[in-house]
Specification:
The structure is a single chain. The chain is of the alpha/beta class and 316 residues long. The longest helix has 16 residues. The protein has eleven helices and 14 strands. It binds adenosine-5'-triphosphate and magnesium ion (MG).
């Protein structure tokens, strides 16, 4: 059995009356990609911030590579690399200058730092742009330099907080491939996302986080078993169709419909039997004026699991 590199026990964080994280426990094993999957405001960044010693937990403890939180923040920081959700780069400096700045924060310098910067730039595929100022970079390239900064001091464990938000599909592809390469080279990664597809593609195990709590944890196969024999209907709405908001409730009362949620330009409906429920669901969509472009019938995926457990969509 693999050894845990991170153990979080009952971590809590309150900001005034707002309990952002309400007692979260999980472990990350050496060599795995562990994803925290959850919607906006679920508590992902707050959890990462506690585990990277940027904020103090209100309660609970954690251990990373044998070092305690709270307590051993210097040792914890040496063991981890952090790729923050907000890009942490100076626009008016070049990529190399930014990385030199980050390296110095980790007590690196001289030739070893220069060589390491060459390595991480190569790793993120931006060696040829090293001398360009960050302000000339695309969003996806900035994200890759952000990742390079997190790798500089060769951490044992890398935190990546929604590293693909707001970038084009091609850059996203590059970053997802990079995450897997890092894992294949032996890095352990704690990855947060609200994209089900990313969690499904990358993760060895997934923790589903909602409203400050871990509501499920396991491999994708274990998690999809939670929804049992259900199937999912995914209604793709016409592009100019506004989000149906509260309107999804009209599906809930139909026979054979277990839960429904609106996500982007889609309505997702968990049903007992797709063939039996489909006609009634499509008819009801027509009654409330939804224009449907196509309908997919899917086996349960992580989005269906989230809907099953919360009655809501991952992005609403
Ligand atoms: N510094 C802070 N002060 C007060 N409230 C905060 C602070 N940071 C986070 N919160 C609140 O804590 C809750 C969890 O926020 P958090 O940023 O951890 O969520 P998240 O899962 O990372 O969401 P997102 O996907 O939007 O990044 C939210 O209600 C947020 O408003
Ligand atoms: Mg966040």
């Amino acid at each position: 059995m693999k050894q845990p590199i991170l153990i979080a026990q009952e971590l809590r964080k309150a900001f005034g009356d707002n309990e952002a994280v309400r007692g979260i426990s999980f472990s990350v094993m050496r060599g795995e990609i562990f994803s925290l999957l959850g919607p906006n405001g679920a508590g992902k960044t707050t959890t990462i911030n506690m585990l990277s010693c940027l904020i103090e937990p209100t309660g609970g403890t954690a251990e990373i590579a044998g070092h305690a939180i709270p307590g051993d923040s210097l040792d914890v920081r040496r063991a981890i690399g952090v790729v923050p959700q907000e890009i942490a780069l100076y626009d008016s400096l070049t990529a190399r200058q930014n990385l030199e700045f980050w390296g110095k924060l980790y007590d690196m310098g001289g030739k070893p730092l220069a060589m390491r910067i060459d390595e991480v730039l190569e790793q993120v595929g931006l060696s040829d742009r090293a001398k360009d100022k960050i302000k000339t970079y695309s969003g996806g390239m900035k994200r890759r330099i952000n990742i390079a900064a997190g790798l500089l001091h060769k951490p044992q464990l890398l935190f990546m907080d929604e590293p693909t938000v707001g970038i084009d599909p091609q850059s996203r592809r590059r970053i997802l491939d990079m995450v897997r390469e890092l894992r294949d080279q032996g890095m352990t990664i704690l990855y947060t996302t609200h994209y089900m597809e990313e969690a499904e593609e990358l993760s060895d195990r997934v923790g589903i986080i909602d409203q400050g709590r871990l509501i499920a944890l396991g491999t994708q196969v274990e998690l999809t078993k939670l929804v049992g024999e259900q199937e999912t209907l995914r209604l793709h709405l016409a592009e100019d169709m506004p989000l149906p908001d509260g309107k999804v409730d009209v599906f809930a009362g139909l026979e054979g419909v277990l839960s429904a949620a609106a996500v982007d330009h889609q309505v997702i409906v968990n049903v007992a039997d797709a063939g039996e429920a489909l006609p009634a669901v499509v008819a009801r969509a027509g009654e409330i004026g939804l224009r449907i472009r196509s309908v997919d019938i899917e086996e349960p995926n992580l989005e269906a699991v989230f809907l099953h457990l919360t009655g809501r969509g991952l992005r609403d």
